[in-house]
Design goal:
By secondary structure, the chain is mainly alpha-helical. Helices cover 55% and strands 0% of the residues. Helix 3 packs parallel to helix 5 and helix 8 packs parallel to helix 10. Pfam families: Ank (PF00023), Ank_2 (PF12796).
Amino acid sequence: MELEKEMLIHAARIGNTAVLEELIKGGANLNQQDPKGYTPLIIACYNHQYEAAKILIEHGADVNAVDHGGNTALMGAAFKGYADIAELLITHGAALDLQHGNGGTALMFAVMFGRNEMVKLLLLNGANSELCDTRGLRAIDLAYQQGNTEAVELLG
């Protein structure tokens, strides 16, 4: 049902938990994707809708679902610097070291965008800092490229 999908994505984007709960009661598929491959959970996390993300996860949304570029909800949270969302995802089994189409990881996103609290959180939870992207670069290499000296120290 296209309307259901649109309603789910929109409710996730704006954090309308009442609509999400009604759709869940009606048996909505929480892992359906929009044309870019975004799931309701990816959308909720990217838009910092903590309660919506929590409800979706509690009702079976896949925390490791990927969009058409291979990006996960955790990657979006790392890019945006949403530590609370990242903690929620990690607590519910998000894989720390998944790599998107160019080999980037959540840790690499955090490093590149100066989200050093996120770098700390990911490292504390066991993210692998030795993974390489498709160019052969590790998180520390990206930190040097960005001039992110704090991340260099964290990763060193």
